[in-house]
């Protein structure tokens, strides 16, 4: 009995792989294209490549109508099945589901700054940052911080209980670009909204008691960590009085619930 079910799952795996594009390894649904030697290729890859990546033949082989028909019948597992996802569906439904699957693997939210190679589920990100990045700048939700503006970008990890917010900043003193801050509450589901907002107060360096306070929201999930999602943006000239002779900017920030 057990042998039989093992055999079935091997067989099924073989079938499902026929519905995966050999170039990008994603499920294919109508329209499915073929190279002149018969390799099936998804719509995205067909648009990206001129020749088949497997055999170098032209991709002008037309459509694979037989496979398209079967793709309307066959039920396949989500590609994150091994991580625990139980979703099954036709390739078209799977493609949509996988974009938002909670078992999807993401890179470390700090990979750009630390070249960390970690990959895992959204819900495991806070634990990873707490345990795996103990040597990075770690602050509480209410702190004072001095930025060295000779650096173009910096980041810090803001921690309150089990909540982890990654703060990133972009400064370019050689340009007239504004300064950008990004606060990302990590570990939230794809559509999860952070219950936190942030207040940043700039500390006057000219002793004339000027005050500048600004607000922004913390956001949740991002697809791509190279994308810089802005929470706070301030024109550089407004910050000049707050920058000292050594190019340092001192801020007080306060992350609070709405
Ligand atoms: Zn493809
Ligand atoms: Zn080919
Ligand atoms: Zn899934
Ligand atoms: Zn990491």
TrEMBL record:
Enzyme category, top tier: transferase
Catalytic activity reported: S-ubiquitinyl-[E2 ubiquitin-conjugating enzyme]-L-cysteine + [acceptor protein]-L-lysine = [E2 ubiquitin-conjugating enzyme]-L-cysteine + N(6)-ubiquitinyl-[acceptor protein]-L-lysine
Gene3D superfamilies, A to Z: Zinc/RING finger domain, C3HC4 (zinc finger) (3.30.40.10)
Pathway: Protein modification; protein ubiquitination
RING-type domain location: 21-56
EC number: 2.3.2.27
GO molecular function: ubiquitin conjugating enzyme binding; ubiquitin protein ligase activity; zinc ion binding
CC annotations in GO: cytoplasm
Ranges of residues in domain SIAH-type: 73-134
UniProt keyword list: Metal-binding, Transferase, Ubl conjugation pathway, Zinc, Zinc-finger
Example of a GO biological process term: protein ubiquitination
PROSITE patterns from the UniProt entry: ZF_RING_2, ZF_SIAH
Family under the similarity heading: Belongs to the SINA (Seven in absentia) family.
Name of this chain's protein: RING-type E3 ubiquitin transferase
